[in-house]
């Protein structure tokens, strides 16, 4: 009878939340999640005041734990949400107003050092949106004072307090901690805040900016060199220009970043002209004018750079061209001006169509007279082109050219489309505005790519098609059908794969010519036809009219060589290890269920489905799919059946936007060099050329890097994906198959594959001395520390080097 009385009393008072909390903590420490859920779901109905008792449980739970991606409090909240869905009577509105307000204040007090999922669930359960904004704002200020900057911005974002707090005070600490993505989330959708963020970052790009003021405001954040790297001008410029494009903000609001980018471009052009001596005078002059036009400071800098490169005469000519004031000229330039002829006349272009004998001996030449090259810039000329090009069973070489922007502009529109058929080449001039936007022009392009009875030949066509989308946005709205397209890049990769599989030295990297400086299409032309292409005009100003004769020759050769390569390969298919009919290697999107050029949103929706392949995938690699997986180099498969490779045979250089990916790949044994935050993108190109590495990059730098290393040596990934997903994509594209022995065979921090055994205590002491571990961490052999270390994922310790210790 006594026992019965106790049970009745227990039911009347409900389950003690402290008892339930202790049970859950014990199961959490044992990592018995299944039992944890059962006990929680059985215990919640027994609580007399579920909403109040839940807070009691949470107040007794520990916060973040190293090595754990969640907390016991977060898990309790998730289970409570599962239970409360079936309990409509358990709501805050069912309580008296003062009692509900008291619970809200208690809940708000729990939002300190915690995970975003915990914040969101607590906000929903206790309806914290309904609290007085002044109370919420006061809590945000409290978090900032405690140094919980990340938690402050997460809470502000979730409670929609963007207009209630000071943007700089809440965002600057996160920027210095290299958490710009959280800041972007905070300002997105608030036009005034988006512009404030861009203006703030742009002000840090000013040549006279110093970090002393920020250092005084946030001294704690400057104890690590890592934070100092975030506010380097090159890094800031990259972020500013990306945000301007993302938020569609007027470029006039980022004048400092634009000037910095143009100045870097100017230095690059000086190096190409006077250092490498790989750029012609005409190309150099065109690009320099594009960079410095209408900017006196850059014009003055150009003159100074020319003087530094011992080109005083050129400096004086440039200073006259831009009418630079005498008081801004370097010493000796004005005096040199006086010795120049009164009238500086451009020398007449006496270049002939047929190049020199030396050029003909060294490079591939298109076997066409000048009369067989037709400039198409009117509807009438286009009609004559249509009659010749769209004949049944025609074979057409397709290539496109556009103006290099060197990162100063995100939009790259096609300037010239080359169409080569037997005995004729047609150059469609898209810089003629009336012709470019004429309905007949767009209709012709649609007809060309959609006709299955016309074979279109290209090389790495996805980059061309991406620029077509920028030129004609309507191609995104109404997808471009792709029928009868053969990308010779895929054929080239098959040839290289056959060579690699027959080599005694094992597989070789795709598109690397042994003993040859040629790359991409030029390498293929050399291998098949005996001579490479002359790529001198590749980086020309393709928007300037009229085109120079050397530019026209280059454009003709680039398209016509596709016909001759296709003919040579078709007649000797077995010699190159290819099928008798190369059309069977066609990589048409339509062959794999009728895809086409799609908008970004449509592309994301198709990630879950098999089949359709988007043509604009040149700027990012599409998700892995069994049938239509895009290749890593230019958007096509590396080969039909690429041989599996061990991780050690893949050598890459990761851009500074993909450092997380680099650490993941190192975990798997891949040889990875990673750029520092302060490194320019060109460093990646130099490393790739010097050490035979493939560049891994994302976003806008892809086009400029690709042009520096040639087709097939640069892989672009989706920077919105997690590092782990990017790593999986890279492994699948290169058919890298790691084994258990490869895991952690290379150090994430230094890329070395040589390890030394260090006692655990010594290792932890060294890490602590270097600042990688907090002072409060016990360096003893506690089982919790050991378990946490085992569970830690690569991306969770971006600054903590992986070491082997016992």
Automatic annotation (TrEMBL):
Species the sequence originates in: Cynoglossus semilaevis (Tongue sole)
Record's protein name: Exonuclease 3'-5' domain containing 3
UniProt-listed Gene3D superfamilies: Ribonuclease H-like superfamily/Ribonuclease H
Coiled coil location: none
Xref: PANTHER family: 3'-5' EXONUCLEASE DOMAIN-CONTAINING PROTEIN, EXONUCLEASE MUT-7 HOMOLOG
MF-aspect GO terms: 3'-5' exonuclease activity; nucleic acid binding
Region Disordered, annotated ranges: 584-648, 775-806
GO BP: nucleobase-containing compound metabolic process
Domain of life: Eukaryota
Domain 3'-5' exonuclease residue range list: 373-574
């Amino acid at each position: 009878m006594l026992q019965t009385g106790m049970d009745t009393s227990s039911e009347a008072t409900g389950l003690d939340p402290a008892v339930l909390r202790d049970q859950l903590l014990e199961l959490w420490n044992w990592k018995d999640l299944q039992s944890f859920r059962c006990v929680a779901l059985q215990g919640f109905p027994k609580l007399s005041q579920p909403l109040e008792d839940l807070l009691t449980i949470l107040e007794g739970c520990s916060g973040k734990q190293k090595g754990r991606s969640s907390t016991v409090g977060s898990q309790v909240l998730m289970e409570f949400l599962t239970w409360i869905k079936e309990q409509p009577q358990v709501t805050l509105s069912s309580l008296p107003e003062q009692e509900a307000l008291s619970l809200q204040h208690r809940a708000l007090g729990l939002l300190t050092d915690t995970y975003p999922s915990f914040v969101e669930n607590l906000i929903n359960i206790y309806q914290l949106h309904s609290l007085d904004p002044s109370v919420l704002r006061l809590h945000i200020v409290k978090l900032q004072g405690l140094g919980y900057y990340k938690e402050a911005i997460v809470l502000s974002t979730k409670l929609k307090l963007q207009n209630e707090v000071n943007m700089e005070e809440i965002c600057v600490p996160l920027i210095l901690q290299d958490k710009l993505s959280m800041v972007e989330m905070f300002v997105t959708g608030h036009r005034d805040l988006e512009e404030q963020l861009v203006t703030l970052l742009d002000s840090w790009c000013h040549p006279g900016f110093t970090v002393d003021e920020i250092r005084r405001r946030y001294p704690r954040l400057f104890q690590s060199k890592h934070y100092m790297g975030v506010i380097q001008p090159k890094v800031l410029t990259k972020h500013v220009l990306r945000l301007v494009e993302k938020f569609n903000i007027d470029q006039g609001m980022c004048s400092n970043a634009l000037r910095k980018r143009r100045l870097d471009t100017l230095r690059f052009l000086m190096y190409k002209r006077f250092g490498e001596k790989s750029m012609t005078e005409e190309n150099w002059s065109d690009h320099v004018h594009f960079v410095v036009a209408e900017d006196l400071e850059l014009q003055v800098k150009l003159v100074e750079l020319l003087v530094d490169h011992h080109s005083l005469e050129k400096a004086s000519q440039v200073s006259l061209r831009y009418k630079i004031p005498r008081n801004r000229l370097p010493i000796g330039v004005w005096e040199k001006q006086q010795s120049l002829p009164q009238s500086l006349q451009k020398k007449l272009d006496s270049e002939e169509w047929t190049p020199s004998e030396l050029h003909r001996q060294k490079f591939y030449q298109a076997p066409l007279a000048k009369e067989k090259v037709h400039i198409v810039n009117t509807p009438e000329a286009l009609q004559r082109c249509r009659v010749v090009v769209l004949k049944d069973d025609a074979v057409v070489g397709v290539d496109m050219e556009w103006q290099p922007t060197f990162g100063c502009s995100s939009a790259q529109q096609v300037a010239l489309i080359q169409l080569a058929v037997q005995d004729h080449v047609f150059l469609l001039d898209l810089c003629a505005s009336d012709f470019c936007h004429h309905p007949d022009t767009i209709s012709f392009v649609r007809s060309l790519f959609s006709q299955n009875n016309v074979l279109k030949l290209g090389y790495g066509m996805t980059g061309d098609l991406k620029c077509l989308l920028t030129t004609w946005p309507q191609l995104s709205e109404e997808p471009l059908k792709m029928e009868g397209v053969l990308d010779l890049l895929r054929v080239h990769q098959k040839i290289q794969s056959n060579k690699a599989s027959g080599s005694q030295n094992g597989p070789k990297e795709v598109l690397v010519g042994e003993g040859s400086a040629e790359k991409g299409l030029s390498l293929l032309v050399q291998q098949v036809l005996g001579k490479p292409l002359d790529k001198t005009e590749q980086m020309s100003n393709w928007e300037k009219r009229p085109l120079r004769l050397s530019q026209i020759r280059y454009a003709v050769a680039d398209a016509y060589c596709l016909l001759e390569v296709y003919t040579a390969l078709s007649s000797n298919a077995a010699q190159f290890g290819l099928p008798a009919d190369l059309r069977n290697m066609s990589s048409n999107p339509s062959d794999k269920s009728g895809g086409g050029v799609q908008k970004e949103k449509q592309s994301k929706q198709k990630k879950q489905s098999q089949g359709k392949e988007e043509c604009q995938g040149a700027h990012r690699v599409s998700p892995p799919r069994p049938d239509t997986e895009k290749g890593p180099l230019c958007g096509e498969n590396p080969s039909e059946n690429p041989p599996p490779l061990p991780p050690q045979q893949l050598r890459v250089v990761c851009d500074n936007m993909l450092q997380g990916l680099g650490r993941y790949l190192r975990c798997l044994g891949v040889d990875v060099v990673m750029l520092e935050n302060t490194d320019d993108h060109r460093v990646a190109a130099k490393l790739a050329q010097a050490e035979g590495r493939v560049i891994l990059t994302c976003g806008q730098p892809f086009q400029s890097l690709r042009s520096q290393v040639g087709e097939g040596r640069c892989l672009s990934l989706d920077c919105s994906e997690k590092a782990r997903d990017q790593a999986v994509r890279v492994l699948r594209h290169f058919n890298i198959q790691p084994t258990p022995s490869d895991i952690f065979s290379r150090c994430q921090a230094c890329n070395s594959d040589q390890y030394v055994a260090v006692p655990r205590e010594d290792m932890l002491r060294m890490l602590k001395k270097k600042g990688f571990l907090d002072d409060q961490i016990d360096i003893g052999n506690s089982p919790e520390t050991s378990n946490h270390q085992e569970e830690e994922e690569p991306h969770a310790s971006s600054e903590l080097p992986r070491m082997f210790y016992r």
